[in-house]
Amino acid sequence: MNEIKLGLRTGIDVTQYTDPTYNADKMYFIREGLENNLDVSQYADPKFTEDQIRIIMTGLKEGVDVSYYAKTEYDVVQMYYILTGLESGLDVSKYADPKYTSDQMAIIHMVMSQGYDVSALCNPELSTTQMHYIRSGLVSGIDVTKYANPAFSTEQMSSIIYGLEKGIDVTPYADPKFTSQQMDSIMFGLEQGVDVSVYANQQFTQKQMDMICFSLMDGMSVSDVAKFADPAFSVEQMNEIKDGVRDNLDVSIYADPELTPQQMHNIYLGLSAGINVTNYVNMVKGIESNPEKEVKSLLSQMDMYQKHQLMLGFESNVDVLKYMDPRYDWKQMRQIRYGLEKGLNVSIYADPKYDKYQMDAIRRGMESGIDVSKYADPAFNSFQMFELKKAMESGIDVSFYAKPEFDSYQMRQISEGLRHGLDFASVYTYADPVFNGFQMNEIRIGMESGLDVSVYMDPEYTNEQMKQIRYGMDHNIDVSKYADPSISASDMEEIRQHLEYGAPITGDINIGALNNGNNINTGDHNGFIDAPIYGIPGNNFAMGSPITGSEMSDTTTLDDQNALEDPEFEDLDDPGDIGD
């Protein structure tokens, strides 16, 4: 009410602000404007804030065209920059648009005040940071139209500005489709004077671009670089091809994106060594296109040792598909490769069910020309296989005992009997799994000595008991005195020794006393040796007593019967022997 009274006193038309929606402050500004003959219609709108009204009134007092900014769409800061532009005589139409933020207006106003052409800045889609990069370019005197595009990130703008400031023609990379990293690679190439058209392609990654750029810088011709300058190649693949080009190799053989870098490297090594890699290349290119083979998947599951065996196979020009299976360890692969190199039918043992030792036994048997089908069965362990192999190489018919139920030592006793001249019928009597290998050994030696082994050929006797009976028979004593499974081997030994001295066996004799001070001569043991027995790992002998020195025939030799002492097996157990 007070503002209306004051207006009536001064004789102004108070009806222009007697709207109840005006507060006292707005009434005051309208009254003051009327009293100063200002065009209050420019701000007599209840939607204006007091601060906006003040900015408009200031413009009216200074005689500028406030119609540029006397609009409710502008905030007070936007109004301020338009007002100051008008006060400075600038063409505010360049930025007097509500689409510009006050910060954007401030930049355009500043640049115009400095006398620069702001046409490149007049785009409300530019961020204030982008505008600052453009302003910086204007100050530097470079052609900002090359990057005054909101599609460029500030990082891209920075790369373009760098090139422009270096006097480089940025046309090859001043394109939003390139990342800032790609721009840097192209710009670097331009700076070095190389033909960037070879790699100025957004499909290349920065690392690919760098690979191509550095190759050109190293003096490689464009035609040579073109052999690997393909976005389809990874950097690792490019590097393998580049090495081949550098070494004057025919890289067309392996410049194929379908090949892995490792495959390319293998081919590169083969070509470098003068090896015919045709089989390898055909295998990889041909088979890998067949989803059923899944070669890529197989190779990805192999370690370096397995892959090395494949490479050795390629060098030997053998069919590596026979063992390209991650289920084989590298030692199994090597056994199959050895067989292929010898021209053997490896399908007989190329099966993951065979371990490397079993494979070795079968392979060696095939090399010897024997019928390995007799023992090429995973049910046989490698020790059994070697026993059968040795027997067959001696011309022995193993058919009747080539059975998994016989362990390797039992097999040895059967073959030893035949090898030492026992007839089949005799050997057949003890070739029974109920006898363990050590019992068979006693029976066999007894037969070879011409003894009636029926006296002790009973599985109820332990091998030690059998031995004491056999010793007695060797010395023509009456073994019936102690040939009883219920008598321990140690008691049998004492009884036998007393019988050899002629002492009667009665309950009153102190058997142990007769041993005191006597040098007991057990005589010739007919083929027994007192050297310690060598171990046969992996066998389950049904031993009746601990192994002693006299349990092995003197005809036993440390040959491939003892698989772990075989040179081939030693090689296989040596991970460092990958070169073979």
Low-confidence stretches: 288-292, 508-580
Strand content: under 5%
Question: Helicity, in percent?
Answer: 40-55%
The secondary-structure element order is HHHHHHHHHHHHHHHHHHHHHHHH
Secondary-structure class: mainly alpha
Estimate the mean pLDDT confidence.
84
Separate helix tally:
24
- Give the distance, in angstroms, between the N- and C-terminal Cα atoms: 110 Å
Gyration radius, to the nearest Å?
51 Å
Beta strand count: 0
Q: What characteristic shape results from the CA principal axes?
A: elongated
Sheet having the most strands: none
Sum this structure up briefly.
The chain is mostly helical and 580 residues long. Helix content is 45%, strand content 0%.
What does this structure look like?
The chain has 580 residues and is mainly alpha-helical. The protein has helices spanning 2-10, 24-35, 50-62, 76-87, 102-113, 128-140, 154-165, 180-192, 206-217, 222-225, 235-246, 261-272, 278-287, 295-300, 304-315, 330-341, 356-368, 382-393, 408-419, 424-430, 437-448, 463-474, 489-501, 567-572. Helix 5 runs parallel beside helix 6 (128-140) and helix 11 (235-246) packs parallel to helix 12. The longest helix has 13 residues, at 50-62. It is elongated and about 165 Å long. Residues 288-292 and 508-580 have low confidence and may be disordered.
Key words describing this protein structure:
mainly alpha; 580 residues; disordered C terminus; 0% strand
Helices, strands, pairings?
Blueprint: H1 2-10, H2 24-35, H3 50-62, H4 76-87, H5 102-113, H6 128-140, H7 154-165, H8 180-192, H9 206-217, H10 222-225, H11 235-246, H12 261-272, H13 278-287, H14 295-300, H15 304-315, H16 330-341, H17 356-368, H18 382-393, H19 408-419, H20 424-430, H21 437-448, H22 463-474, H23 489-501, H24 567-572
Helix pairs in contact: 1-2, 2-3, 3-4, 4-5, 5-6, 6-7, 7-8, 8-9, 9-11, 11-12, 15-16, 16-17, 17-18, 18-19, 19-21, 21-22, 22-23
